[in-house]
Amino acid sequence: MCGRYVIARTPGQLALPFDARVDASVGEHVEPNWNVAPTHTVPVLLERLSEDGQLLPELHAARWGLVPSWAKEISVGSRMFNARSETVMDKPSFRAAITSRRCAVPADGYYEWKAPDTGRGRKQPYYVHPRDGSGIWFAGIYEWWRVPADATDGARAGQTRPGRGGDPDGAWLLSCSILTRAAPSPHDEDPALAALGSLHDRLPVGMSEEFAREWITPDTDKARTRALVDRAVDHGLEVAAHWSMHPVGTEVGSVASRGPQLVEPQNTLL
């Protein structure tokens, strides 16, 4: 799974490789965060129709934890921060988004907790990140949710309207979820993949910039979408083979801690 991650790159750094437009919501609601948790507002890359009908990449602010368009309450999103690649085409909460509302979620790395080999004691947090210091683009999906007029300010954070010149009488919330896949075997011949397999039984689906460009292009054809998801799952292992990990301090367990000290390596006997 992926329940905590790091995004410290600036909007300009994220947008540059894609020549993407940066939506005003990003500057208003997104800051560097070394401990992103579900319900936090994060940057996402997606494609939107321009006024002249062209699909263009844009960087937007979204709430992490997908809120389906039909949801009655925003709180349902707190449980939908991950979407299993095996069932994303079938789950009512995700099946509409996976075909036509795919996004790429940028990260510098993510955290995972490993249980002691004895099965007892405190879990040790690890920071997983590309060995070369580059970033990750997670395969994601997004949804628009119309915010009720009586919603709290927290529900309105990160809001935007669906389309230029959209509904002037209503506010909309953009939310997202990150796809996961089965982790590699702990006995994989690749040492990096074996280490990830020993860490947890799920793995977020990472993408290269090139694959991310294809991923965010909307397509309503279910067969092509299924094939794309399958390719993303396979591609995710190729990306993960270039990741490294090291133990970090338990301070990361508190969502109030968001500074760069969280990713510093810690000495541990585990």
UniProtKB/TrEMBL annotation:
Q: Which GO terms describe its biological process?
A: protein-DNA covalent cross-linking repair; proteolysis
Q: Signal peptide: which range, if any?
A: none
* Coiled-coil ranges (or none): none
The EC number on file is 3.4.-.-
Record-stated family:
Belongs to the SOS response-associated peptidase family.
**Any keyword Protease?**
yes
Q: What UniProt keywords apply to this chain's record, in alphabetical order?
A: Covalent protein-DNA linkage, DNA damage, DNA-binding, Hydrolase, Lyase, Protease
Region Disordered: start and end of each range? 251-270
Identify the enzyme class.
hydrolase
Q: What is this protein called?
A: Abasic site processing protein
Gene Ontology MF terms: lyase activity; peptidase activity; single-stranded DNA binding
